[in-house]
Design a protein that fits this description.
By secondary structure, the protein is α/β, with parallel strands linked by helices. The chain has helices spanning 24-38, 52-55, 64-73, 86-95, 112-115, 119-133, 147-155, 166-173, 186-195, 239-248, 262-267, 274-283, 296-305, 329-340, 352-366, and strands spanning 42-43, 45-47, 60-62, 79-81, 101-103, 137-142, 159-161, 179-183, 203-207, 212-214, 224-227, 253-256, 270-271, 289-293, 310-313, 347-348. The protein has three domains: 17-110 and 324-351, NadA-like (Rossmann fold), CATH 3.40.50.10800; 114-227, NadA-like (Rossmann fold, 3-Layer(aba) Sandwich), CATH 3.40.50.10800; 234-313, 3-Layer(aba) Sandwich (Rossmann fold), CATH 3.40.50. It contains 15 helices and 16 strands. The strands form four sheets. It has a six-stranded mixed β-sheet, sandwiched between helices. Strands 1-4-5-16 form a four-stranded mixed β-sheet. Helix 1 (24-38) packs across helix 14 (329-340), helix 3 runs parallel beside helix 4 and helix 7 packs across helix 15. The protein is globular and about 65 Å long. The two termini are 31 Å apart.
Length: 369
């Protein structure tokens, strides 16, 4: 079996000390100057979970796939400074032209969920699954995964999914094979499969560190194999948060992301993707009450942008996504000033062989979305 491997990327250069001495106003003014200087040659996409100090300079806001798709249309942009995390910049690199350069302001901006499924583990687990169930499995991967995992899925006939189209893609997948491997987020996979009518008793969890299945029963009954991964942010919401909130205020509407655990999703009033959450809050009646189970930077932004509604986090002690917060104003300015000096730092470049298979997985989804 050929193993798709992502090449190591050079370590990022440490942020020069002088950026810690600049005031916020000085840094903001410099970013504006550089954006004006580069014009259409520079494009800055910003994920919804970014800090306000960064998102204010985004030329487009969105979730990871939307931003990558927008990047693919920015033909005049020579440089794409992606304000998100590593796997998002990888997807942007794969969907843009070869002469366009995708930059991540801080290479430490990774994703704990994506890191829970590496290519070696996936190949090893796939071999065990083939021994157990034969050629009956189609792999699907959440877009919150590395380019190498997307490439693996594409190579074996599968596709990527988003939180907004996961149900549609699982329906398609079951027309191809009788079983589905869903990685790397077990919660999105479980919640989506359950919505399709698949009982929990027909879902097994694959634990990559032990290379075994967590399942009680006859393995022949398994329809969905869930990779044992999760979002470190959304898993921090639990059923006690829901129960305490219901007791304190029965009139509050609870809306959560499907990366939350099964019990939280089942107990919420609404569930959906980041974009669904944003649109639902924006369209909600004035004076309505909402508790949101998703990343704190976004919740705070929704509170600020919807002052006519009572909005809070489902978890009052929630922190922002730590890896997403690696992208801050000093790192954004540093990456832009290096471009101004003619130097490209922290370029994200996915190997051609990985890109070939990963784009297959992406296109299978885009054709059905």
């Amino acid at each position: 079996m050929d193993v798709l491997e992502i090449l190591d990327i050079e370590s990022s250069v440490s942020l020069p000390e002088r950026y810690n001495r600049l005031s916020i106003a000085e840094m903001e003014e410099r970013v504006r100057e550089i954006k004006l200087k580069f014009g259409k040659k520079l494009f800055i996409p910003g994920h919804h979970y970014q800090k306000d100090e960064v998102i204010q300079f985004a030329d487009a806001r969105g979730d990871s796939l939307k931003l990558a798709q927008i990047c693919a249309t920015m033909d005049e942009a020579e440089f794409i400074v992606f304000c998100g995390v590593h796997f998002m910049a990888e997807t942007a690199d794969m969907l843009t032209k070869g002469d366009q350069k995708v930059i991540l302001p801080d290479m430490r901006a990774g994703c704990s969920m994506a890191d829970m499924a590496d290519i070696e583990q996936t190949v090893k687990g796939w071999e065990l699954m083939q021994e157990t169930w034969g050629d009956t499995i189609l792999p699907l991967t959440y877009v919150n995964s590395t380019a190498a995992i997307k490439g693996f899925v594409g190579k074996y006939g599968g596709a990527t999914v988003t939180s907004s189209n996961a149900k549609q893609m699982l329906e398609w997948a079951f027309t191809q094979k009788s079983r589905i491997l869903f990685l790397p987020d077990q919660h999105l996979g479980r919640n989506t499969a359950f919505d399709l009518g698949i009982p929990l008793e027909q879902m097994a969890v694959y634990a990559p560190l032990e290379n075994k299945f967590e399942f009680e029963g006859d393995l022949d009954d398994v329809k969905v194999i869930l990779w044992k991964g999760h979002c470190s942010v959304h898993e921090k919401f639990n059923i006690k948060h829901v129960e305490n909130l219901r007791e304190r205020d029965p009139d509050v509407n609870i809306i959560v992301h499907p990366e939350c655990t099964y019990d939280v999703v089942q107990s919420a009033d609404y569930k959906g993707s980041t974009n669904y959450i944003i649109k639902t809050i924006e369209a909600a009646p004035s004076g309505s009450k909402w508790a949101i189970g998703t990343e704190m930077n976004l919740v705070n932004r929704l509170i600020e942008e919807n002052p006519d509604k009572e909005i809070e986090s489902l978890n009052p002690f929630m922190c922002p996504c730590l890896t997403m917060n690696r992208i801050d104003l000093p790192h954004l300015l540093w990456s832009l000033e290096k471009l101004e000096e003619g130097e490209v730092v922290n370029q994200i470049s996915v190997p051609e062989e990985v890109t070939k298979h990963a784009v297959l997985a992406l296109n299978r989804m885009l054709e059905r979305s």
